[in-house]
Structures are given as C-alpha cells and as structure tokens.
Amino acid sequence: QTVLQGIILLPLRLISITFILLLAWLSASIATSCQPGTGFLPLEGWRRRMVQTTLSGLTRTAYFVMGFQVKVKGKVASLSEAPIFVAAPHSSFFDGIICALTGMPSIVSRAENLSTPVFGTILRSLQPVVVSRQDHDSRKNTVAEITRRALSRGQWPQVI
Questions:
Q1: What's the structural domain count of the chain?
Q2: Quick one: pLDDT band at residue 36, thresholds 50, 70, 90?
Q3: Which positions fall inside the Phospholipid/glycerol acyltransferase domain (predicted)?
C-alpha cells in the first residue's frame, strides 16, 4: 500500500510543484517587468506587495505539497524592529520556509544565481544583495550594501 501511495503521490507532487514554480516565475516576471534600476532601486507599491504576498503564499503552498507543515510560535519581527534577519546555518532548501514566513525578505546570493533559468527571475524579484566571487572587494561591498539597506528606513525589505 505504501508503494502504491508513492507511485500516485510522486507524480502529483511533481506536477503541482512545477505548476507552483511556473506561477512564481510569472509573478516575479510581472513584478520586475519595466522596473528601472533593477537591483539598485527598491521595488515599491504594488510590485513589492505582489512579491511579498504571491511568492510567500506560493512558497508555503509548495512546501505543503511536499508534505511540510510549519507552525510559527511567537511573532515575526517587523522591518522597523529588525532590518537584518539572520538565519543560519542556511545550508538546505529549508531556508525557503524562513523566507516565506518572514514575507520574502531580500537575501544575500552569489551573482551566478541570477542567470539561472526560472529561479534567477524569482531571485531577482527578491532584490538580493549580490556577491561576486570574482571581485576581491566583494566582502566589503556586501557589508556596505547590507548596511545601506538596513539604514534605509523601510525603503528596502528586510535582509536575511
């Protein structure tokens, strides 16, 4: 019986996750289309709300489809309380749960991830702090960018 459930559930889960991923890509594409200064200027208004609500909901749905149910105890710190949110040891795909539960904050990501098909578009909509591994001043530039965003008084989303 367990094998039969797996044979039925696996394709359904794969199809559902693919559909959710395509919806996330579409949402991210719409939110970032015709956006001047992509990466240098924060998303505002409907674009920012669209990324926060749609991608957060789709990410939660994807984890639910995969069989994960997450309950939050306590209250997530707001942007004004904590402009920088630390999650460690960020070594697995479970970091997506943290992003979904905290309203899709900006993340720190290597520059190569932005060129990945589908995921790069979604990542770009999160307005990441981009780290270039070829740049010798990358660490200093990353710290400066995180500091600039943290001191922006709410113009940029939280940085995780």
A1: 1
A2: low
A3: 70-156
